[in-house]
């Protein structure tokens, strides 16, 4: 019986090839997107499964105090001082370990590279069971030991047999390899930080920081809260996340020193699996959830598409149904037959979708640096269930509709077939367009917001600034002036400036200053830019009042002994100080509230305009600028005119001559901007793909349906023409029948898109003006596309000679 | 009223050329009642369609009230057609989704007429055709004879002076066929010109004049005394 049904189903498909092709390809496309989305979400949510303790490992994160105002409010990391407290307080846990990321120049013989490495407590190797090629989990017990991956071993030593080999940090500190491990799989959180690119290659003992930067790792610190610095806890089998959270709450309440911990509002425990997706929570964009939702939406559009076309098409088979019923088929039998048909179609579509995925996934892995696989064993139940659900969901309505009719009516009544189910069909078209218009509107808004971010970034000469990083090393700091003079002598170099950060870097170094000495209540929080006087030149920043800082004035240049330092402030600082005119700010004083050094006061000698230096999604901030030679870490070389590549080469040559011991770490400011911007860009591209697929499906469906409806209405069209209707009137009639649902869809979709995009827009301080005109334009686009799709066909139908339509009825 | 001169109609398909009208000359006066007869496939419907401006001749002249419309395009023909010609088909060609009244009203929809006047006219013509009580029925609920009355009503509601009927009784039994013929006769008495294709000599007797077609030629014309 079932086999018989399948045979009939296949025969029907062969009979209506065009419809079958549209049905199957639409469904296959929807399934491809849906399964891909599902696999991606699953992949992202199940990192780190290769570690034996994965279900017992937790991370300690923190919620930032809102006053911190750094754009990010959830960290999956916390201060280095927390782990020592946990270790002392919680004797029930199995282990706790921190990692801290720092970059060093590593040298072995002729091989010399900057490496981002992790400094870790030795317990890290108890928590994570890495696969050791050489050495074992005691590798970090020796404060000058080093655990490296095979990739790193081969990079420096040519083979993995590297135990005892020496790597020199910053040309000064020797470490020797104590373990070589296999590279951690791509799907571990060690390899997955999106913004901070910290690939997992080298782990050094955290106690080595004592020797390197005089850091007491046994105590930690309450100053540095950065994204990649993790604190891991390994719990015994009998303790769980809730227990650890309660302990973390207790520690935060009772053991975190009041004044030290005030940057954070709580300590948050998460399972290890969260580490890979935490980044999206941190920046406040639920990307993983959105991917699941969008891929489901696309599948729904595809199903509705199928339902629509199948309904329309099945009405042409009322006669067949009538015949079968007269001959004794029950409704259940007929229902089964139609459902088997839609299941067969769903199954065929699924096969196409799987074939498509087999092609798409490797391409995606390549482009995105991931290691997704379509594991048939593991996904089979899901794929089967999806096929069955899609088959049933898409096929149930047409099957029910067609088999409901009584046989006499079915045999006699070719009559009202166009009308039948037309309301449901309209509703479904509406639903499809609602989803497509919704996505289209979202993509447009996200795109325009991204463009706005990009265009406001051009306040700085992005493409003319060559940024040279890693200058705050002893071997380089004292040569900066030489470097500057030599670079400025190059023909196409306009100016060379050094600073503590360059535009678009997401650093938030803030200071509390007060116009009244020691008065905390009057204190204002200012962003702190340390720079050389050339900074204004390099970035075309005008001085609105007063003067720029100078190399030649003693009080302009910060030293350890100086008591009074001249500074610049931007206009927003004036606003915070309650000063109206830039000129009035000159010689005003600000006093440090928590300054450990001898410095007593800052004197304003110049005012610059307010510029969004951190840029991207941040709001404009109040800044002060000081010339502090000891805290310059990055250089900006302004290159204008000439051949860019030649100029860069000349800069590199100068560097190699002045600072031969360290390789240059240079790139254009554009690239700094792209570090963060690309995340936004790729999100928009992904959204664009979803929207494109959904809209295409909706249009294909609409076209199929319009064509079908037009054949259904041939006679009516003929009669109307005979009675004097013009081509335009007929075409309008055909187009209009689909307009009502499409317009209704917009009424639902556009407000929906408005609210959905608010979430995205809220992320940005500087937002596009009003999304409403954009929404309207996207809506109109969807309608026009819909009309365009139907109109071509409708006009052709309307032009045809009426007598042909009426002849053989 | 209208005159066809040396009218040709050739249908060309991929394989064959069919000469459906082969030099036909006809003249029809106002108030005439003409029956067209002939075997299947001799070109009767083709002739009627050309007279009804639903189709263009391949060659020849067509004078409608002294205007040669042979080379008019679709929209020009449509403009003349909708005010001057009503159609009745063998298969009624009512629209199943519209009620009886709406089907009739359809003929006025493209006439730039206010809605109230349309409704008024529809009501009048339905009474005249004896189908007033069926206004809200759907075509599927009516018998064939009733459906053809609706079609006749639709053909005359616009006060068109010329009615073209292609085998109007072909799908009806003899009683209902008779009824429709009586209707046509009374319309003709009131001044409407009628051109009708029929296979039934009895029904052809209602006409003043019979034109016999064979293979695209007019073979004979018989005029009857009124
Ligand atoms: N659209 C068409 N294409 C090709 N041949 C046609 C077409 N319409 C009619 N014919 C042919 O023209 C001839 C006359 O047809 P028609 O006028 O319908 O005959 P009648 O109405 O007398 O039965 C027939 O041979 C028919 O097959
Ligand atoms: Mg005929």
Could you please describe the fold and organization of this structure?
The complex is a heterodimer of chains A (809) and B (226). Chain A is an alpha+beta fold and 809 residues long. Residues 412-418 of chain A have low confidence and may be disordered. Chain B is an alpha/beta fold and 226 residues long. Chain B contains seven helices and ten strands. Chain B has helices at 44-51, 74-84, 100-109, 115-128, 144-156, 174-189, 201-204; strands at 2-12, 17-28, 33-37, 59-64, 67-68, 85-89, 162-166, 193-197, 209-214, 217-223. In chain B, the strands form two sheets. In chain B, strands 6-7-8-3-9-10 form a six-stranded mixed beta sheet, with helices on both faces. Chain B has a four-stranded antiparallel beta sheet with strand order 2-1-4-5, covered by helices on one side. The longest helix of chain B has 16 residues, at 174-189. Chain B is globular and about 45 Å long. Chain B starts with a strand and ends with a strand. The model of chain B has no long low-confidence stretch (mean pLDDT 89). The complex binds adenosine-5'-diphosphate and magnesium ion. The site of magnesium ion (MG) has 2 residues of chain B, from α1.
Which secondary structure elements does this structure contain, and how are they paired or packed?
The complex is a heterodimer of chains A (809) and B (226).
Chain A: H1 2-15, H2 17-45, E1 57-64, E2 74-75, H3 82-89, E3 95-108, E4 111-120, H4 124-127, E5 132-134, E6 145-149, H5 150-157, E7 166-169, E8 173-181, E9 202-205, H6 208-213, E10 231-234, H7 241-255, E11 264-271, H8 278-282, H9 287-315, H10 318-326, H11 331-368, H12 376-404, H13 407-412, H14 422-456, E12 465-468, H15 474-477, H16 480-488, E13 493-499, E14 510-514, E15 524-530, H17 535-538, E16 545-546, E17 564-570, H18 571-577, H19 582-585, E18 589-592, E19 601-608, E20 623-626, E21 634-639, H20 644-658, E22 666-668, H21 669-712, H22 714-722, H23 727-736, H24 739-762, H25 771-799, H26 802-807
Parallel strand pairs in A: 4-9, 6-8, 15-20, 17-19
Antiparallel strand pairs in A: 1-2, 1-10, 1-11, 3-4, 3-7, 3-10, 5-8, 6-9, 7-8, 12-21, 12-22, 13-21, 14-15, 14-18, 16-19, 17-20, 18-19
Helix pairs in contact in A: 1-11, 2-9, 2-11, 2-21, 9-12, 9-14, 9-21, 11-12, 14-21, 14-24, 14-25, 16-20, 21-25, 23-25, 24-25
Chain B: E1 2-12, E2 17-28, E3 33-37, H1 44-51, E4 59-64, E5 67-68, H2 74-84, E6 85-89, H3 100-109, H4 115-128, H5 144-156, E7 162-166, H6 174-189, E8 193-197, H7 201-204, E9 209-214, E10 217-223
Parallel strand pairs in B: 3-8, 3-9, 6-7, 7-8
Antiparallel strand pairs in B: 1-2, 1-4, 4-5, 9-10
Helix pairs in contact in B: 3-4, 3-5, 4-5, 5-6
């Amino acid at each position: 019986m079932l086999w018989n049904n399948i045979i009939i189903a296949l025969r029907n498909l062969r009979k209506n090839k065009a419809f079958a092709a549209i049905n199957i390809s639409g469904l296959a496309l929807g399934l491809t997107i849906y399964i891909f989305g599902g696999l991606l979400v699953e992949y992202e949510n199940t990192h780190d499964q290769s570690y034996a303790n994965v279900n017992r490992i937790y991370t300690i994160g923190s919620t930032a105090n809102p006053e911190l105002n750094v754009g990010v409010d959830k960290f999956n990391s916390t201060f280095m001082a927390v782990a020592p407290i946990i270790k002392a307080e919680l004797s029930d846990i199995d282990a706790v370990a921190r990692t801290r990321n720092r970059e060093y120049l590593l040298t072995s013989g002729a091989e010399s590279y900057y490496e981002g490495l992790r400094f870790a407590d030795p317990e890290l190797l108890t928590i994570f069971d890495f696969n050791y090629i050489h050495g074992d989990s005691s590798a970090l017990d020796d404060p000058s030991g080093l655990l490296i991956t095979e990739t790193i071993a081969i990079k420096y030593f040519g083979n993995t047999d590297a135990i005892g080999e020496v790597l020199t940090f910053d040309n000064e500190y020797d470490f020797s390899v104590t373990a070589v491990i296999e590279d951690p799989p791509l799907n571990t959180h060690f390899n997955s930080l999106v913004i901070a690119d910290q690939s997992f290659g080298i782990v050094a003992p955290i106690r080595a920081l004592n020797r390197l930067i005089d850091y007491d790792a046994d105590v930690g610190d309450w100053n540095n809260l950065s994204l990649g610095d993790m604190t891991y806890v390994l719990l015994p089998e009998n303790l769980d996340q809730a227990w650890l959270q309660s302990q973390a709450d207790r520690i935060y309440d009772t053991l975190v020193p009041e004044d030290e911990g005030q940057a954070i509002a709580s300590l948050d425990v998460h399972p290890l699996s969260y580490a890979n997706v935490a980044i999206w929570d941190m920046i406040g964009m639920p990307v993983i959830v959105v991917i699941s939702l969008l891929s489901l939406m696309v599948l729904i559009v595809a199903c509705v598409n199928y339902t629509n076309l199948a309904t329309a098409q099945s009405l042409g088979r009322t006669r067949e149904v009538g015949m079968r019923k007269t001959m004794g088929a029950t409704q259940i039998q007929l229902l089964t037959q139609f459902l088997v048909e839609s299941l067969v179609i769903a199954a065929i579509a699924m096969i196409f979708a799987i074939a498509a995925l087999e092609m798409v996934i490797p391409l995606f892995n390549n482009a995105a640096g991931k290691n997704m696989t379509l594991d048939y064993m593991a996904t089979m139940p899901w794929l089967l269930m999806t096929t069955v659900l899609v088959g049933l969901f898409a096929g149930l309505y047409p099957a029910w509709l067609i088999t409901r009719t009584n046989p006499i009516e079915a045999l006699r009544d070719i009559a009202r077939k166009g009308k039948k189910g037309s309301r449901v069909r309209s509703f479904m078209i509406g639903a499809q367009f609602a989803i497509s218009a919704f996505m289209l509107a979202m993509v447009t808004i996200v795109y325009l917001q991204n463009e706005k971010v990009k265009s406001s970034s051009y306040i700085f000469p992005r493409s003319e600034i060559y940024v040279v990083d890693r200058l705050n090393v002893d071997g380089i700091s004292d040569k900066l002036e030489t470097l500057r003079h030599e670079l400025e002598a190059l023909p196409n170099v306009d100016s060379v400036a050094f600073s503590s950060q360059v535009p678009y870097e997401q650093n938030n170094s803030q200071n509390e200053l007060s116009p009244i000495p020691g008065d905390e209540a009057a204190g204002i929080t200012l962003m702190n830019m340390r720079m050389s006087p050339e900074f204004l030149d390099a970035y075309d920043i005008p001085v609105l009042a007063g003067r720029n800082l100078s190399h030649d004035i003693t009080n302009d240049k910060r030293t350890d002994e100086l008591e009074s330092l001249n500074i610049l402030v931007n206009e927003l600082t004036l606003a915070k100080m309650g000063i109206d005119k830039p000129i009035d700010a000159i010689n005003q004083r600000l006093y440090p509230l928590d300054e450990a050094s001898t410095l007593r006061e800052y004197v304003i000698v110049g005012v610059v305009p307010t510029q969004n230096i951190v840029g991207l999604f941040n709001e404009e901030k109040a800044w002060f600028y000081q010339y502090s030679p000891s805290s310059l870490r990055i250089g900006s070389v302004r290159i204008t005119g000439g051949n860019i590549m030649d100029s860069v080469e000349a800069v590199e040559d100068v560097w190699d001559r002045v600072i031969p011991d360290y390789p240059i770490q240079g790139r254009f400011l554009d690239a700094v901007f792209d570090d963060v911007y690309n995340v936004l860009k790729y999100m928009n591209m992904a959204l664009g793909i979803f929207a494109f697929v959904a809209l295409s499906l909706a249009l294909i469906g609409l076209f199929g349906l319009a064509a079908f409806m037009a054949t259904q209405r041939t006679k009516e069209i003929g009669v109307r023409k005979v009675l004097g209707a013009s081509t335009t009137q007929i075409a309008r009639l055909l187009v209009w029948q689909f307009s009502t649902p499409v317009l209704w869809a917009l009424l639902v979709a556009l407000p929906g898109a408005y609210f959905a995009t608010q979430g995205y827009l809220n992320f940005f301080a500087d937002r596009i003006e009003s999304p409403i005109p954009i929404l309207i334009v996207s809506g109109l686009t969807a309608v026009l596309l819909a009309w365009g799709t139907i109109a071509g066909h409708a006009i052709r139908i309307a032009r045809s000679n009426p007598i042909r339509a009426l002849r053989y009825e | 009223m209208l005159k066809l001169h040396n009218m040709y109609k050739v249908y060309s398909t991929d394989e064959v050329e069919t000469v459906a009208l082969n030099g036909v000359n006809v003249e029809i006066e106002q108030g005439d009642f003409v029956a067209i007869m002939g075997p299947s496939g001799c070109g009767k419907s083709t002739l009627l369609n050309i007279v009804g401006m639903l189709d263009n001749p391949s060659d020849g002249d067509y004078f409608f009230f002294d205007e040669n419309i042979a080379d008019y395009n679709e929209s020009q023909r449509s403009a003349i057609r909708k005010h001057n010609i009503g159609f009745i088909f063998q298969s009624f060609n009512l629209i199943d989704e519209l009620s009886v009244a709406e089907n009739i009203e359809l003929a006025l929809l493209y006439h730039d007429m206010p809605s109230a006047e349309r409704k008024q006219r529809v009501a009048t013509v339905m009474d005249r055709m004896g189908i007033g009580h069926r206004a809200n029925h759907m075509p599927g609920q009516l018998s064939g004879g009733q459906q053809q009355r609706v079609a006749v009503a639709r053909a005359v509601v616009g006060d068109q002076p010329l009615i073209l009927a292609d085998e109007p009784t072909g799908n009806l039994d003899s009683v209902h066929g008779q009824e429709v013929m009586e209707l046509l006769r009374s319309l003709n008495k009131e001044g409407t010109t009628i051109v009708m294709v029929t296979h039934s000599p009895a029904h052809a007797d209602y006409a003043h004049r019979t034109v016999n077609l064979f293979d695209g030629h007019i073979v004979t014309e018989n005029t009857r005394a009124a």
